[in-house]
Design a protein that fits this description.
This protein is α/β, with parallel strands linked by helices and 328 residues long. 37% of the residues lie in helices and 19% in strands.
């Protein structure tokens, strides 16, 4: 019942956040307790089969019972703490043909709605502005509720400061809540939306091309489909290209990445809760961090600045990524 109520009020956040927080916990508890129970059952099998003495077996089982409860409680507390405390990830990436250094901030998978509210966004904006970035890049899944409920939090993004501005691409969750209306509203916030197109960051021939595509979910949705040819049309061939693509898996859709130096993605949440990362790995080629995909192209996957589902993270902290682009 709690899980159903959580999903309902995530789309229509009409209850106080304290109550919503209580409704959100069961999803994570069920998953983490299930994982703990598997380890408990395996340990119990070893005790029952490996220990002959009944009194010693009883003692070990009691110890296992108390240990399992303590571990489960500790893991759940730590997971909830991690979700509420966003980490700053410092990453340096060498880029060929880049003439000078640039520092950009990437945020992704914020999932405004429910517990991700105006206060959360305000705190995030202050942290980003302290980094004095050249540009701010939002790689999708910004909005995850009805737009009218997201507006107070979205308004906080007007306070973002950077030399060349803030740029946004849609993720798969925007399609669930009126992707056209979300794009239109975000444009009113002085945020540039990249829709299968590109722009130039920096002085002429001294900066880099910044391209962005719609999410690959658009192919299922029937519109707002990604088109790499349009996105790379008329790019400056003397400068490197950074592509914003929400899902890391999009890199597998590209037959040729020779014109792309770096792809910035999100979507995976880094797995969000161990051992869920093992399932994510079955669906996405990269889960988190920086990877050299081939000779010409690198990809960085942000673990997500917010969270989806339960307010829990285990083995994958929330992150604001401060990326230093360095001439190779």
């Amino acid at each position: 019942m709690g899980v159903f109520a959580y999903l309902l009020f995530r789309r229509y956040p009409l209850i106080p956040n304290d109550i919503y927080f209580l409704l959100s916990i069961p999803i994570g508890l069920i998953f983490l307790l299930f994982s703990t129970a598997i380890i408990y059952d395996i340990s119990l099998i070893f005790i029952n089969k490996g220990v002959k003495d009944l009194s010693r077996r009883h003692f070990l089982k009691k110890s296992l019972d108390f240990s399992a409860l303590a571990v489960a409680g500790g893991i759940n507390a730590k997971a909830m703490y991690n979700a509420k405390h966003t980490m700053l990830e410092e990453v340096s990436i060498k880029i060929k043909k880049l003439k000078q250094k640039y520092n950009v901030v990437q945020i992704s998978d914020i999932h405004i709605g429910g517990l991700i509210d105006k206060e959360f966004i305000s705190s995030m904006v202050k942290k980003i502005n302290l980094l004095n970035p050249d540009a701010i890049l939002i790689t999708g899944d910004l909005v995850d509720t009805n737009l009218k409920f997201a507006k107070p939090a979205l308004e906080e993004l007007k306070k973002l400061n950077s030399k060349y501005g803030t740029y946004f691409i849609v993720g798969n969750h925007e399609y669930f809540h009126g992707v056209d209306k979300i794009i239109s509203y975000i444009k009113t916030l002085d945020i540039k939306v990249l829709e299968n197109n590109n722009t130039y960051i920096g002085d002429e021939n001294q900066g880099f091309n910044l391209a962005g595509v719609y999410d690959r979910f658009g192919d299922k949705f029937g519109s707002y489909k990604p088109d790499i040819n349009k996105a790379l049309n008329h790019i400056n061939s003397n400068s490197p290209t950074v592509l914003l693509a929400h899902q890391p898996k999009y890199i597998e859709d590209l037959k040729d990445t020779s014109k792309i130096d770096l792809i910035l993605s999100g979507h995976t949440h880094g797995g969000q809760i161990v051992p869920f990362n093992l399932l994510v790995k079955l669906q996405q080629p990269y889960i988190k961090g920086l990877h050299q995909h081939n000779k010409t192209t690198q990809i960085y996957v942000n673990k997500g600045t917010g969270f989806w589902g339960p307010p829990m993270r285990l083995g994958a902290s929330s992150e604001i990524t401060h990326i230093n682009l360095i001439p190779s």
